């Protein structure tokens, strides 16, 4: 068991279950064998109160007082846990019980030390009760000692009833009994004075308890993984902190600040690896005017999270703000001295710090040393060059730095672009063009897209029309060889014109036009060579704000590199989908008709005849004649233009005259039907929609139905209405026409069903 647990720990250092197994094994062993296991546990979980408690109890059982004291000195101030502190007070009380007056004084000091640090915990009620019992048990040989003892007990009660704990009501009752036992006359005034304070503490306790109940006190401090439970715990702690910061009990600022600090300390027991909690704790101290406390918090934070670069910057910033220049410099030096934490960003921030605090020459000297480091990237060169240009007003030094970096970072497109921006600020258009030409001659084509885009933007802004068109054509030729823009890369596009003649947020076309142009560009570049795949509609509504100047419009085709999901089995959502309602799109459930999309999909999968047969049995003749003309669709929806074309070719009724309705002559609605009214084999012999239990006993009224039945049918079935020769209205009413509008008024038999459709459609 232990071996498997250690194997799991090697794979995951913070495997909590594996560490619990080792802790259980340690409890079964003698302290000499268990101590190394506990030490390993506490290296990983230094704020785990339960492990500290197991460790110290094992030492207490072994009667090793020195080891016990050492353990308490390591854990008490970092683990503000009631159970651990009660273990401490038991140890102190046991050690001083035979030492007379001196021992009682030591025990009293231990109680006061404990209550000072953890007396505001919501579960600290038993600690106050133990303290009061201890005070009552002290012997008093003189009247003065007795008076002092009663005064101490009264002060303890008065402090305890002001703290919102689980035992606040019991403490108040005990206090009432105590005062009444001493002096009823004096008790009346004291109880009246503290009753309102007690009521306030009790009210705050109820709110505090709700927040504390959301917190898992058994959670171990592990690095955040983003799980839902971790986020919930973090939110719960933040709500509790916000509650305490609001000072709901309206106590004095010193006591309120003490409670907030205590809550932060308890929070860090569980969120030990969260840098934002450490930072909030430090900034709260700064806001309260205690910068020294904030410094201590940052020091503890860096000990807990030595790899947190952002906490080091925050700590250095605090030192610099309060005038501790040397302290801030030492933080940066420690950051860069360690190879595991030394980064290019560290060099940049230290460079800026030296420039602020020591001047230009010191910054130049540091840059000369930093550029030799293997961690010095092109960002360091850019940062120092722009510092020299903007702060030192020395463009010559900045130009030399860029040129020096160009020898090392010619392969970095981002460095080329920064250098080009710098030259543009100098209005050195000749060197800008020379830089672009030099970079494009060395960069691989697949890495030169950004440089080409910036070159085009430069020519559009500062060049003439000839140079602009020439660079655009060269870009197309270069990128067409990489396959990045497909075989259509050499062809002109209206997007090129849009790119050339737009400025900032001003565009030479409307949003609708830009949407259409960009869509067609995407289709031309991404659907070429993929004709065997069905068209998948892309989201419309391209926002102008999403496009940049030139190069961003050109980058629209980069969406072809995105791995897209298979939408061939996608089911279109419809809010009317209800089990048993007879309308469930793309469903193959028994007794539920499938829609045309499902019919076409099943035709591909080999079950076309059964699916079409099941679907057409519920359709009106006009709808059948329309469906059979639809082409096969492989995807969530067909091409709208193709559907409109099929609609225009169908025999759609154009008026409301009964003689014009195809329902009056079923044979004319089906291709291949005979003059005697025979229907195709696909639907011949099918029963009416509602089967033999449909409303066959009800007389057929062409234009009149019972009102309750009419309401029921209106809720479940859309009614077919005569359609106008308007393709846009056809598009809007497409869903309504997919059902048999005569479900509610049909009778048994084929002709009855058609007559029922006539009744429903002429309503």
Description:
By secondary structure, this protein is mainly alpha-helical. The protein has helices at residues 2-11, 16-27, 31-44, 49-61, 65-75, 82-96, 100-118, 125-137, 143-160, 168-182, 184-213, 228-245, 253-270, 275-287, 291-304, 309-321, 325-337, 344-357, 360-370, 378-390, 395-409, 413-425, 429-442, 449-462, 465-480, 494-500, 511-526, 551-554, 596-605, 608-616, 621-627, 640-649, 707-716, 727-732, 750-761.
Shape: extended
Output the number of helix runs: 35
Given helix and strand content, the structural type is mainly alpha
How many strand elements?
Answer: 0
Please compute the radius of gyration using only Cα atoms: 41 Å
The main sheet comes to: none
First-to-last CA distance: 78 Å
């Amino acid at each position: 068991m232990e071996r498997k647990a250690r194997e799991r720990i090697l794979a995951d250092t913070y495997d909590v279950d594996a560490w619990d197994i080792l802790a259980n094994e340690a409890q079964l062993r003698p302290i000499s064998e268990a101590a190394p296991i506990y030490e390993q546990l506490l290296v990983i979980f230094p704020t785990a109160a339960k492990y500290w408690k197991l460790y110290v109890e094992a030492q207490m059982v072994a009667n090793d007082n020195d080891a016990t004291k050492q353990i308490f000195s390591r854990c008490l101030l970092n683990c503000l846990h009631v159970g651990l502190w009660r273990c401490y007070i038991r140890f102190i009380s046991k050690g001083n019980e035979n030492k007379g007056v001196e021992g009682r004084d030591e025990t009293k000091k231990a109680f006061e030390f404990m209550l000072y640090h953890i007396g505001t915990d919501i579960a600290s009620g038993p600690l106050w009760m133990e303290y009061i019992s201890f005070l009552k048990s002290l012997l008093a040989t003189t009247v003065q000692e007795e008076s002092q003892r009663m005064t101490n007990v009264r002060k303890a009660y008065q402090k305890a009833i002001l703290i919102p704990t689980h035992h606040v009501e019991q403490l108040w009752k005990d206090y009432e009994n105590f005062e009444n036992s001493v002096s009823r006359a004096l008790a009346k005034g004291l109880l009246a004075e503290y009753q309102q304070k007690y009521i306030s503490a009790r009210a705050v306790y109820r709110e505090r308890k709700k927040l504390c109940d959301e917190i898992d006190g058994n959670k171990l401090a592990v690095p955040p993984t983003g799980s839902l439970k971790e986020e919930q715990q973090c939110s719960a702690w933040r709500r509790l902190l916000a509650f305490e910061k609001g000072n709901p009990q309206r106590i004095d600022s010193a006591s309120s600040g003490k409670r907030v600090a205590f809550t932060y300390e308890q929070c860090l027991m569980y969120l030990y690896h969260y840098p934002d909690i450490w930072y909030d704790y430090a900034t709260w101290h700064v806001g309260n005017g205690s910068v020294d406390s904030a410094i201590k918090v940052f020091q503890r934070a860096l000990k807990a999270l030595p790899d947190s670069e952002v906490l080091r910057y925050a700590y250095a910033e605090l030192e610099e703000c309060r005038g501790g220049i040397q302290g801030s410099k030492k933080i940066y030096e420690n950051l860069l001295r360690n190879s595991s934490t030394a980064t290019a960003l560290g060099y940049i921030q230290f460079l800026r710090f030296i420039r602020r605090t020591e001047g230009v020459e010191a910054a130049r000297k540091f840059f000369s040393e930093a550029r030799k480091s293997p961690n010095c990237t092109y960002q360091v060169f850019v940062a120092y060059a722009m510092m020299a240009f903007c702060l030192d007003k020395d463009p010559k030094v900045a130009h030399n730095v860029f040129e020096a970096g160009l020898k090392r970072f010619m392969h970095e497109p981002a460095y080329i672009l920064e250098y080009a921006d710098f030259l543009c600020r100098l209005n050195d258009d000749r060197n800008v063009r020379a830089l672009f030409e030099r970079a494009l001659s060395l960069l691989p084509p697949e890495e030169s897209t950004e440089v080409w885009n910036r070159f085009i933007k430069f020519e559009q802004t500062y060049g003439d029309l000839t140079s602009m068109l020439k660079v655009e054509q060269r870009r197309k030729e270069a990128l067409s060889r990489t396959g990045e823009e497909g075989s259509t890369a050499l062809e002109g596009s209206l997007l090129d014109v849009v790119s050339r003649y737009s400025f900032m947020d001003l565009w030479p076309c409307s949003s609708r036009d830009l949407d259409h142009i960009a869509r067609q560009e995407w289709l031309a570049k991404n659907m070429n060579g993929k004709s065997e795949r069905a068209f998948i509609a892309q989201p419309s509504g391209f926002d102008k704000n999403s496009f940049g100047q030139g190069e961003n419009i050109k980058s629209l085709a980069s969406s072809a590199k995105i791995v897209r999901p298979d939408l061939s089995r996608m089911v279109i959502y419809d809010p009317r989908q209800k089990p048993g309602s007879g309308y469930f799109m793309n469903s193959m459930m028994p007794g539920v008709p499938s829609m045309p999309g499902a019919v076409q999909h099943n035709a591909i999968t080999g079950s076309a005849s059964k699916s079409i047969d099941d679907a057409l049995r519920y359709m009106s003749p006009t709808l059948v004649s329309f469906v059979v003309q639809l082409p096969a669709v492989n995807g969530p929806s067909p091409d709208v233009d193709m559907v409109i074309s099929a609609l225009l070719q169908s025999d759609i009724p154009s008026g409301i005259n009964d003689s014009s309705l195809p329902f009056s002559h079923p044979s004319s609605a089906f291709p291949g039907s005979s003059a005697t009214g025979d229907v195709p084999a696909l639907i011949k012999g099918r029963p009416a929609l509602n089967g033999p239990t449909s409303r066959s006993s009800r007389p057929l009224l062409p234009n009149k139905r019972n009102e309750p039945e009419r309401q029921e049918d209106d809720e479940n079935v859309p009614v077919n209405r005569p359609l106008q020769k308007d393709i846009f209205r056809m598009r809007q009413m497409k869903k309504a026409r997919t059902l048999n509008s005569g479900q509610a008024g049909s009778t048994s038999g084929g002709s009855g069903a058609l007559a029922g459709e006539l009744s429903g459609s002429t309503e």
